[in-house]
Amino acid sequence: MKTKKDVQPGTLALMVLKTLDVMGELHGYGIARRIEQISGDILFVNQGTLYPVLLRLEQEGAIASEWGPSEKNRRARFYRLTRAGRKLLETEKHDWEQKAAIIARFFEVKAEDLA
Amino acid sequence: MKTLNRCLIRLRNFVTDRRGDQRLREELEDYVAREAEANIQAGMSEEEARRQARLKLGSAEAIREQYHAEEEVLLLEYLAQDTRFSLRQMRRSPGFTLVVVLTMALGIAAATTMFTVVYSTLLRSLPYPQSERIVAIHDTRITGRSAGGLMTGPRFYDIEARNRSFSSLAIFDFDESTLIAGKKLPIYVRGARANAGFWDVFDTAPMLGRVFHARDDVPHAPLTVVLSYPGWQRLFGGDPKIIGEQVKLDQQTATIVGVMPRGFSALGDVDLWHAAQFTPKAWGNDRGDGLRDTNVFGRLRLGVTLAQAQADLDRIGEQLRKEYPSSDGAWRFTSETLREDRYGPVQSALVVLLIASALLLLIACINVANLLLSRATTRQREVALRQALGASGRRVAFQLLVESVLLALAGGGTGILLAFVLTRTAASSLSGILGQSGTIHMDGVVIGVALLISVTTGIVFGVVPVLEARKVQLHSALKQGDTRLGGSSGNWLRSVLVGVQVGLSLVLLVGASLLADSLWNLMKQPLGFEPEHLLTVRVALPWNTRPEAVRNFYNDVQQRIENLPGVEAAGQISSPPMTDFHVRGSFDADWLPQASNQPAISAENRNIAGNLLVAIGTPLLAGRAFSAADQVSTVPPVLVNEALVREFLPKGNPIGHHLLLDGQAHEIVGVVADVRGVSGAIAAEPGPAVYWPANANGGWHRYFLVRTKAPPEQVAQSIREQVYESDPQQSVGEIGTMDQLIGDAVAQPRLNAAVVASFAGVALLLACIGIYGVVSYLAAQRTQEIGVRMALGATRGDITRFFVRRAMVPAAIGLAAGTVVSRVSNRLLRSQLYGVQPDDLRLYLAVLLVLLVALLAATLGPAIRAGKREPMDALRTE
Questions:
Q1: How many CA atoms lie within 13 A of B591 on its CB side?
Q2: Pair (B723, B757) in one structural domain
Q3: Cβ distance B238 to B227 under 8 Å?
Q4: Which residues in chain A have their CB less than 8 angstroms from residue B27's CB?
Q5: Are residues B370 and B315 in the same domain?
Q6: Which of B30, B69, B70 sits opposite A29 (nearest CB)?
């Protein structure tokens, strides 16, 4: 069994936002599984880190939550992206792409490029 | 903005106590249910599925902590939670809590009390507007003995006319008078004659009425009186309508114009101030020696420094030395701040006491740290359990810290309460300048500092157990049997603490024994008189009473006292020993070469009458005492003391020689023994003194010294009646005993010795408790080891010796280090010592012996008990 990696701190919030953006409403367990699934089962989402992130995002107004009926007559807390959350996702995404691009250029750099 | 918003939400959660616990629990339950479902679908049994789900979730406690970290104001939340938990812990072990709190309280109380005294005197600004600008100006002899800094009037007026540094100058002296208000009996009052400048220098507004002005302070102006608060209470019962009232002060009419607020005093406790109406001519040509009784203070002009003022005074002093070489040639002006003037003499003693109290506090704290440490070790299992349940190391450490801060606060609070009581007692019972009303009191600053110290010590000494707790190895601590290996963690720390504690106790004990030895040396000095059963009766006639009236009055009272039942002998003297009184004279002698303007002998002058030498018990060593004829002689003979003979006529017989003063030759008719403390200071070696017949030499204020057989109170009352019968216009001042005067004279050394000795006693006790605790703890911790050792053939004696050695090695190192520290630090004590060297070997040995015996006794108890255990019992303990 290959070892799974914990999610890097700071990136989990972004993953949560994008997952909700794609999936619409989702409960906590679902968010965790989806993130693991999207990562190709490389990542492992610790509930201990997930719930505080959900709480913080809610406090910041990026997501909203409410109790709702779930499948099989069970109740669960569902999270959804708010308008502010969508905006936040846009900025974060932009930031992240910029950062990734910069790092990528560093990896590709060769000595002759800088001559 | 976002952060602020979050903070607000968190704060609201905290305040409304709305916990997210419920929500989190539901989320976690939901998670486990779904995960289990997934597991079942993967083919697990239902039970196994749930188990795996929980395992995957991990520690619920850890998740909760992380979740809460997001949810609430973290620190506040932890604080509230840990406080609750700690209080519960404290209630669970009341004995431990009590010992810790009491130990802390002792240390804090001692330190706070001493700090209050030091803060009240050496740190807090004195209660006058811009008090740092008030300067005491002293007149000091360039060589030889000064007169306590007191000045003669003409020199004051020269300063007033010539200085460029002072915006105002105060001159005042203390005088005692008889006050008659309305039809009431004459009352003795302690007053001060002051100039109008006095009120500008001390610049304090009266509570009622006004102070006196320049126009009240000119000769023949109507007499004005300003009452002090205690004087107002004592003489007039605090009557608010007293302003404008007329009273008789020394048979002159005076008007009360004002009352000063409570706590105002300039120097000494007085009942009233009255306008002195001095003029530069009032002293005649008396510029140099003679009666010196005026105190001088000045208020610096804005922007003038003390150094500039001193330079100015030096310039004036130099001018005067040139202008009046015969009288002013030997004198110069010196100056110091009001604080130095007031508290300089007690400063070094106070600093020593403060340091001693700090040492005691340190010892108490070490004891507390030791206790906390022992407990932290026994609580390792609890700590390990909490960590196993997911509490982070930091979280556990924080809780332990909260617990020790709480303990420190409880101890600190108790200590501050105790200190409050102690300072109140001190404020009313200390003698001298420290006991002056309103001087020593606690305020917010002191309490704040004390609380700060408590919390700081709580944190500093709470860190010790925290460090211990962080070393906890989960599985070994959870297993009960840590005892097999003697669990040595923290033992070295405990040994260091014991060593430090023992060393500090040694420092305190050595200091205490040095001070006690000084006190003993001081008390056993030959006084030159017999203080037992000796009454001192103050009588002061109005200063302008005619000489014959003075003589008749004192002769009459003398006879009346001598005829009282229970009186053995009575005499009169201008001032008894151990009182702060200075009258110096300079003489030539007929056996010494005479140089103009440079009298050969400088000596204290005292006037005596009646049967003084017998009454006070000073032996007459040669010649004769004064006769009745001497008392009315125009060129009276004198008595001199041994010190004068020793210094100026060591090989000859002084009887029949003459002292020369103002062109007259006064025959020396007798030599008396040296009397200690002639001008107040008991520690000073007696200097030359000359005794004059009081009735021939004038002197309107005297003390009667009365040796009694009957109880002193009874005689005191009869003396008051006799004086009243002799002159119904005359009051009698304080009646005290010589023992009281001596008690006051050694009050400071006695206070030093008593305070440091009690600190040292407590320190010794704490050190013994500390070492007892450590040995008991070691023995309990090593129960199994003892069993093994005994099973392998160790005797009881071996076991006892083992523990004694374990405790006494750090103690011995502490003693050695303490000896070194003591030898260095006792130099601070030098100014407080009398007749003993700070490195007195004999004292060190005695203290070492006392400490060793006490510590050994404290060690032996638990060590012997450890040796007495049955090997099988010891082995079975699990």
A1: 16
A2: no
A3: no
A4: 28, 51, 77
A5: no
A6: B30
- Of B7, B32, B58, the residue at which a domain comes to its end is B58
Residue of B7, B11, B30, B73 to mutate when probing chain A, most A C-beta within 10 A: B30
Q: Does A69 touch chain B (CB under 8 A)?
A: no
pLDDT at res. B166: 95
Secondary structure of residue A59 in the 3-state scheme:
helix
* pTM (global) more than 0.90: no
Tokens matching residue B591:
């056996």
DSSP state of A3: P
CB atoms closer than 10 angstroms to residue B348:
14
Look up the domain containing B293 and give its range. 144-329
Give the pLDDT band of residue B561 (cuts 50, 70, 90).
very high
Q: Would an 8 Å CB–CB cutoff place A29 in contact with chain B?
A: yes
* Chain B residues with at least one Cβ partner in A under 8 Å: 2, 5-6, 9-10, 20, 23-24, 26-28, 30-31, 33-35, 57-59, 62-63, 66-67, 69-71
Q: Are B399 and B453 in the same domain? A: yes
Tokens in use for A108? 């590709």
> Coil, strand, or helix at residue B171?
strand
B66 to A51: CB separation less than 8 angstroms, yes or no: yes
User: Identity (one letter) of the amino acid at B149?
Assistant: G
Question: In this structure, what DSSP letter does residue B121 have?
Answer: I
Nearest to A60 among B2, B31, B59 (CB): B2
Residues B632, B567: one domain? Answer: yes
Across the interface, whether the CB atoms of B20 and A55 are under 8 A apart is answered yes
Of the segments B647-656, B766-775, B862-871, which one has the largest average pLDDT value?
A: B647-656
Q: What single-letter amino acid sits at A52? A: P
Cα separation, B682 vs A102, in Å, equals: 88
- How close is the nearest chain B Cα to the Cα of A4, in Å? 13
Looking only at the bridges linking them, the beta strands covering B187-194 and B166-180 are antiparallel
Chain A contact set for B34 (CB, 8 A): 29
Any B CB within 8 A of A60 CB:
yes
A98-102, B272-276, B598-602, B672-676: least confidently modelled range:
B598-602
Classify the C-alpha dihedral B587-B591-B595-B600 as positive or negative.
Answer: negative
Q: Which of B725, B741, B814, B717 is nearest to B774 (CA)?
A: B814
Is any Cβ of chain B less than 8 angstroms from the Cβ of A56? Answer: yes
d(CA B772, CA B766): 10
The domain tally of chain B equals 4
CA distance B379 to chain A (A): 28
Chain A environment of B24 (Cβ under 8 Å)? 51
Residues A74-96: tens digit of each pLDDT: 778 889 889 988 998 898 889 88
Tell how strand B187-194 and strand B272-275 pair up. parallel
Q: Is residue B216 part of a domain?
A: yes
pLDDT tens digit sequence for B15-61: 555 556 677 777 888 888 888 888 888 888 888 888 888 887 777 77
pLDDT tier at B597, thresholds 50, 70, 90: low
Q: Which helix (H) or strand (E) holds B495?
A: helix B491-524
Residue B247 counted as domain residue: yes
Q: What is the ipTM of this complex?
A: 0.77
- pLDDT higher at A107 or B12: A107
Q: Find, among B800, B749, B801, B803, the residue nearest to B777 by Cα.
A: B803
